From TrEMBL:
Keywords assigned by UniProt, alphabetized: Metal-binding, NAD, Oxidoreductase, Zinc
InterPro entries, per database record: ADH-like_C, ADH-like_N, ER, GroES-like_sf, NAD(P)-bd_dom_sf
Cofactor: Zn(2+)
Domain Enoyl reductase (ER) intervals: 21-363
Name of the protein this chain belongs to: alcohol dehydrogenase
Region span, Disordered: 1-23
Family membership: Belongs to the zinc-containing alcohol dehydrogenase family.
GO cellular component: cytoplasm
EC number(s) from the headed UniProt entry: 1.1.1.1
Length: 371
């Protein structure tokens, strides 16, 4: 069946940033709908995830590191978009057709020619990459213009609501589990396990055969973590000192965990996470604090004597996204969603900042979402 070309309006709604720093806000404005050029496609965004990185960019949290939204973004953040292809530019007709479902990621485009792009596994470090909501308008708009070569196809069995958060949060959790080098039957510790990234990491880790030790606060988080497959749970609120939590990790795992994935951007967690590890263990750095004085590591003596590994992780490759989506298509991993609307973006950012969100937040963008 041939899908007729949709009617594309000339104007669209977008959440545009105004102001700078912590007082920055967004307002819904009417802007032009772009048209795809060679190698590009136009995606009607039905749903977009709200990532902690969106909040950090909108509020200039990383300015101390020299990272801030560029003028090319036009003040439009967002990098977890899912929707439908409504226009296909020259050279993309073999890869995309009208009506295909597409996911827009943090990495919107890569050059495809540098050393990192050509080695087949490392294009996330392309020095010429373009990033949604940072150096290009993001997914907090109804129609998003993207590179057809680097946009992800959403498989059957994955709704737009679920696909959006997998574009960043899901693939980041998945690749962090892989970077931990934890094998089936070995222990992985997840501080902040009940959060937006943590609850996805539990599911990916369990799907990969790992034994999950979840750390978070409260009985509600305990119930969630255990429901998702955590084998053990530590309620940090019940311990007087971080050293006591470390002792409990050692008691449960006997010699320490084989890996720990830090999604909580907390100074205390980063100080103590290496101490949860057994000799030869790996700490994966995921959470990004805005305080540049926070360091991820341990005293050199500890790292050397225990031969610890400390590695970083940020998003994933095009292939990683495909693999992360496949877990959902097969019914193994499902984001827990809190749903809202694009018009209420600022209030959802406040909830995110206050730690009041269950799972991942997704916002309906299109007035009439279609799949």
């Amino acid at each position: 069946m041939t899908i007729p070309a949709p009617t594309i309006p000339t104007r669209q709604r977008a959440a545009v940033r105004h102001g700078t720093g912590e007082t920055a806000t967004t307002t819904i404005e009417t802007i032009d709908v772009p048209q795809p050029g060679p190698g590009q496609i136009l995606v009607k965004i039905n749903w977009t995830g709200l990532c902690g990185s969106d909040k950090s960019l909108l509020h200039d949290d990383w300015q101390a590191f020299g990272v801030a939204m560029l003028p090319q973004s036009q003040g439009i953040a967002g990098h977890e978009g899912a929707g439908v292809v409504v226009a296909v530019g020259e050279g993309m007709q073999r890869r995309w057709k009208i009506g295909d479902r597409a996911g827009v990621k943090w990495i919107a485009s890569t050059c495809g020619e540098c050393e990192f792009c050509l080695n087949g596994v490392d294009e996330v470090h392309c020095e010429k990459q373009i990033n949604s909501g940072f150096s290009a308008p993001g997914t907090f708009q109804e129609y998003c213009l993207v590179d057809g070569r680097y946009t992800s196809k959403i498989p059957d069995g994955v709704s737009d609501e679920e696909a959006g958060p997998i574009m960043c949060g899901g693939v980041t959790a998945y690749t962090a589990c892989k970077r931990s080098a934890v094998k089936s039957g070995q222990w992985l510790v997840l501080p902040g396990a009940g959060g937006g990234l943590g609850h996805l990491a539990i599911q990916y880790a369990r799907a990969m055969g790992m034994r999950v030790l979840a750390i978070d606060g409260g009985d509600e988080k305990r119930e969630l973590c255990e429901k998702l497959g955590a084998e053990a749970y530590i309620d940090f609120q019940k311990f007087k000192a971080p050293a006591d939590i470390k002792d409990e990790v050692m008691r449960i795992t006997k010699h320490g965990a084989h890996g720990v994935v830090v999604t909580a951007a907390s100074k205390t967690v980063y100080e103590w996470a290496p101490m949860y590890l057994r000799p030869g263990g790996t700490m994966v750095v995921v959470g990004l604090p805005k305080d540049p004085s926070i360091l991820a590591g341990a005293p050199p003596l500890v790292i050397a004597l225990r031969r610890l590994n400390i590695v970083g992780n940020i998003t994933g490759s095009l292939k990683d996204v495909e693999e992360a989506l496949d877990f959902t298509a097969r019914g193994i991993v499902h984001p827990i969603l809190s749903k809202g609307k694009l018009e209420d973006l600022d209030s959802w950012i406040e909830k995110l900042n206050a730690g009041q969100l269950a799972g991942r937040a997704v916002l309906q963008v299109a007035a009439q979402a279609t799949e």
